[in-house]
Amino acid sequence: MKSNAVKDLLKHRLAWPVLALAALLLLNQIFRPDFLALRMQDGHLYGSLIDIMRNGAPTILIALGMTLVIATRGIDLSVGAVVAIAGAASCAYIAASPEPASPSTAAVAVLVAVAAALLLGAWNGFLVSTIGVQPIIATLVLMTAGRGIAQLITGGQIISVSNDHYKAIGAGYLFTLPVSILVTAAVFVATAVLTRRTALGTLIEAVGINPVASRLAGLRSRNIIWIVYVFSAVCAAIAGLMISSNVTAADANNAGLYIEMDAILAVVIGGTSLAGGRYTLVGTVVGAFIIQTLTTTVYTLGIPPEVTLVFKALVVIIVCLLQAPKARKLLGSFRPARQVVVKETPKEKVAA
Amino acid sequence: MNEIVPVVEMTGIAIGFPGVKALDGVDFRLFQGEVHALMGENGAGKSTLIKALTGVYTIDSGTITVLGERKSFTTPAESQAAGISTVYQEVNLCPNLTVEENIMLGREPRRGGKTGRGSIDWKAVRSRTREVLAGLHLDHVEPNSLLASHSIAVQQLIAIARSVEINAKVLILDEPTSSLDAEEVAQLFRVIRELRDKGVAILFVSHFLEQVYEISDRMTVLRNGKLVGEYMTRELSRMSLISKMIGKDMEALAELDNGPAKERTAADASAMPFIEAVGLGRKGSVSGIDLAINPGEVVGLAGLLGAGRTEIARLFFGADKADEGHLKVKGIQEKIRSPRTAIDKRIAFCSEDRKQEGLIGDLSVRDNLILAMQASKGWMRRVPRRVQDELVTEYIEALDIRPANPDALIKNLSGGNQQKVLLARWLVTEPGLLILDEPTRGIDIGAKTQIQKLVNQLAAKGMSILFISSELEEVLRVSDRIAIIKDREKLAEIHNNGVSVEDVMSVIAGGTQ
Amino acid sequence: MSALSTLAKPSTRKATQARTRLRASARYAPTLATVGLFLAMFAVGSGLYPSFLSGQVFLNLFIDNTFLIVLAVGMTFVILTGGIDLSVGAVVALSMMVAATLLQQGWNPAAVIVLVLVIGSGLGFLMGLVIQYFDIQPFIVTLAGMFLARGLCYVISLESIPVTEGFFTGMAQAQIPLPGELFISPGVVLALLIVAAAFFVLHHTRFGRTVYAIGGNEHSAMLMGLPVKGTKILVYALSGLCSAIAGILFSFYSLSGYSLAAQGMELDAIAAVVIGGTLLTGGTGYVLGSVVGVLVLGIVQTFIAYDGTLSSWWTKIVIGGLLLVFILLQRLFARKTA
């Protein structure tokens, strides 16, 4: 009976990601007994956990948007470029403004970045839903051109700004916590509410699970696809604001470089399938934490930081193999199953 | 009796998938120089048998002998090496390559003699292709034209050319005529006959009864994965073929047909039909369909599989766009361009393919049940949880859906309960016309009768219903009027007052009326 | 009857031949558009800057992009099967790092080159195996491969390692004179040889035709009895091999190994292939088109270098724009033939 309860728990889609995260945290705690400790200093909370959350905030944000895109069977490669454009646009605005230090300038700068994201997201959505270009190709266009556009905005320079209000987004504190963590938490809650309080989440999943049946049920998938790409771009823009505000500068070349890959990984590790369908926002957050904690672990264990990427590669390979039906079949029972049917049965069994 | 050794002999073939026995001890023989038709309704095991012979599936038990040699195929390549070649319904060639490449792929003549592993000798490819094409009266096809630039009919013939090129002893044609017009069929048959006369053994699968009688010499009938028998075509009447396929002999059919299960609505000529199709059709699908359904009336579509029943349903629902004729809803001509517009006109469609076209497998019963209603409202106006609960509880109870758990994933329900959820999905939208395509296929008897009863209740409330089923008894039991479909056209329309299964079958078998 | 049909034949055959020729040219249209674009850009450049119109400017496009040409060749194979390889840039960097490190330790250059080629194709082969046997999307597998290769670079060294070995420096400086006081580098010759070999393999061997067949319809290719599995794995191994060769060529060019080298080069390679007229859905395209694609990317850069007032980021924007135009063109063609 007891073992059954454990088994059921292990069957939960979040079980493995959460276990992996717990194991990583435990590993750190063993090697550094003060790892999980939080301490208060000057009214701010400090500690490794806070660092992990703060450093992981941009990835989490982008991964949230990416989750919805992937749920519709899509992918958004352009988010890194959107990060760069958002940072560039807002910093360029502040730098050019007559009152570069005023709160209203910072507010408008944020609006500029979000407006740019709306435009860029709508562009991706247009290519995917109206023109019918494969998502990976459609977003490749903006991935390539986007960084150029960001550099065009910054004039190829790193634009430094000094606006304390703007700086607060990435580096400030509120209620003892870093603002970036609060913003990310707010976006997470907003996403959850947006998708689960309306019918959006269900319809996104329906389109991702069975586009044909969704069409025959009268669903307008075009609008849904449009929404998820716009949302993904907005998340990327907020992450871009965070990154640029943290260093009070816009670096069109390096801001958000390869962040799309991290975000996609976070989604996949969190348990949302690249094939679309059911998604889990919590899983995505856990996935992003795993990636971030991995980096921290490497430091804690005293492994040279340059090995992080190799580590990451191994984790990706292992997680993907664990989720691949074929590999599961090999690892699990060796019951003879007919190839044709294999496609559906193991998935149902393990995912349930 | 038959002293000639069959080219292909399959004995006691069994293939099972988890939970299903697709083939159960089937014997099959194919002789040189004959056209042999493989007959059976959907799920009879025709395509499984073909796939066993072509190495796509491996058999669980039984033997396959080709030209006197025992074989066990595990890949299509092995089957082809044994001289068996297949042309599938959805032409399995590469549209991005040229005709000559498609014919010669994998067997291109190479430089360096017979054992040469050198480069492809394109000149030899070209001349060999021309030779093969000429043999099939395809001289007008340029070897270096793209496959995709040719009609489906020509592509079929090119696929056959590929088989001819490898000197196939056995040619399997799986539904080759389903998207061809009459002239193209004639051309195909000419080629088939010539190949037969050259000694090729041809296995022909088609849903078109008349074509089977025109081209085949012998037939094997399967039903529910079992062998019914092997017959000479000229000795088997259309009537007895149909009864062997459906699995009931004439007397049993007559007995089963215990009269209509409900009071028939009197045909009221003055009533305004809820929906009326005028000359509705689509290229490569059905053509010239006239059909009107009054409020409160159940119209059944009868016809063999592949006759065009589903195609008609899809045109009514806008799942496919009609390119001839039009639809009138309540007397007003409407353009039904997509399922969305059809639903807005209060038309609902329950597809025959539950899995691909109905279920959202990974979502709950509740989400699936509410989906069409939610889609109409748009994503922003979520159907309130309270309303959801009311509707879901109501329909779970009314349709006796089990388990009665709204949050169970629909993929974990039995077929019958899945079907009821899909029915409920449409019922909550309160449609004026409900199209049911094979609503009782693959579900147990209990659920079946429940659904049939429900159809009558709905009609009594004034709903128009278009009912499609392969089971004639069922069509007769629920319908007020029956439209008989054959070979993509409407053959006849009869009022269901004391009509028997036999009557309907004789209309279908009769060829022309 | 036969007399009749032979009588009727010539005229109809001529007509159909003409039609086929038209259709055939439509098949080359995307690639021809790229060639046209290249010529137009060259013409405009020559009109604006007198020194643009020279053989050496044209040859420099090759000299400066040898590694990209080789990468694009490998990528063309992968994309023709309907796959994608994101690892190529990282494998280039890894190849450079391995080469630079071993040369520093005094290895024989020939042994170094062989080892690098083995590592590159081995990595590709492994990725192919995972893609084929575990049915995981190429995108994810090669992304992991990219992280792995880039990570291994960091493990080897974070610093840039100079290459001072004689053969490599010799190759870096070597020039092969051509008539008219023009010259090319040995790398160009190698790259062009690889292009020629790839062209031959794709169009004159069964392996090559299988690559196209898989891209056209993998299921059909399987039913036709073609060796689909092996071909798919081999294609990734080939791409890995090309990445390793590109790494060696890049070493000749830059005379160093640096773990951050070739960042984003996978995107350049993909862009070159797409601009060269290869469909990302697979099955259609030419390796020569990809070479022209690389030249277009090169000329965009040359253009911007010549102009002086235009900044370097315009390269990315223009490449993105070109990608867009060609993707839309491909959609248009796909709709027409469908």
Task: Explain this structure.
The complex is a heterotrimer of chains A (352), B (513) and C (338). Chain A is built from 17 helices and 6 strands. Chain A is globular and about 65 Å long. With 352 residues, chain A is mainly α. Chain A has a two-stranded antiparallel ribbon with strand order 1-2. Chain A has one domain: ABC transporter involved in vitamin B12 uptake, BtuC. The two termini of chain A are 19 Å apart. The relative contact order of chain A is 0.17. The longest helix of chain B is centred in the middle third of the chain and has 16 residues. By secondary structure, chain B is an alpha/beta fold. Chain B has 2 domains: 251 residues, 3-Layer(aba) Sandwich (Rossmann fold), CATH 3.40.50.300; 236 residues, Rossmann fold, CATH 3.40.50.300. Chain B has a 6-stranded mixed beta sheet, sandwiched between helices. Chain B has a 6-stranded mixed beta sheet with strand order 16-17-18-13-19-20, with helices on both faces. About 3% of the residues of chain B have low confidence. The two termini of chain C are 36 Å apart. Chain C has a two-stranded antiparallel ribbon. Helix content of chain C is 77%, strand content 3%. In chain C, strand 2 and strand 3 form a beta hairpin. The relative contact order of chain C is 0.19. Chains A and C meet through helix 6, helix 12, helix 14 and helix 15 of A and helix 5, helix 6, helix 12 and helix 14 of C.
Note the topology.
The complex is a heterotrimer of chains A (352), B (513) and C (338).
Chain A: H1 2-11, H2 15-31, E1 39-41, E2 44-46, H3 48-71, H4 79-96, H5 103-131, H6 135-154, E3 159-160, H7 164-171, E4 173-174, E5 177-178, H8 179-197, H9 200-209, H10 211-216, H11 221-246, E6 249-250, H12 259-269, H13 281-300, H14 308-323, H15 325-331, H16 339-342, H17 345-351
Antiparallel strand pairs in A: 1-2, 3-6, 4-5
Chain B: E1 8-17, E2 20-30, E3 35-39, H1 46-53, E4 61-66, E5 69-71, H2 76-81, E6 84-87, H3 99-104, H4 122-135, H5 152-165, E7 170-174, H6 182-197, E8 201-205, H7 209-215, E9 218-223, E10 226-232, H8 238-246, H9 250-256, E11 275-281, E12 289-293, E13 298-302, H10 309-317, E14 324-329, E15 332-334, H11 339-344, E16 347-350, H12 354-358, H13 365-377, H14 385-398, H15 415-427, E17 433-437, H16 445-460, E18 464-468, H17 472-478, E19 481-486, E20 489-495, H18 501-509
Parallel strand pairs in B: 3-8, 3-9, 6-7, 7-8, 13-18, 13-19, 16-17, 17-18
Antiparallel strand pairs in B: 1-2, 1-4, 4-5, 9-10, 11-12, 11-14, 14-15, 19-20
Helix pairs in contact in B: 4-5, 5-6, 13-14, 13-15
Chain C: H1 2-48, H2 55-63, H3 66-80, H4 88-104, H5 109-134, H6 138-156, E1 161-162, H7 166-173, E2 176-178, E3 182-184, H8 186-204, H9 206-216, H10 218-223, H11 228-254, E4 256-257, H12 265-275, H13 287-307, H14 313-337
Antiparallel strand pairs in C: 1-4, 2-3
Helix pairs in contact in C: 1-13, 3-8, 3-9, 3-11, 3-12, 3-13, 4-5, 4-6, 4-11, 5-6, 5-11, 7-11, 8-9, 9-11, 12-13, 13-14
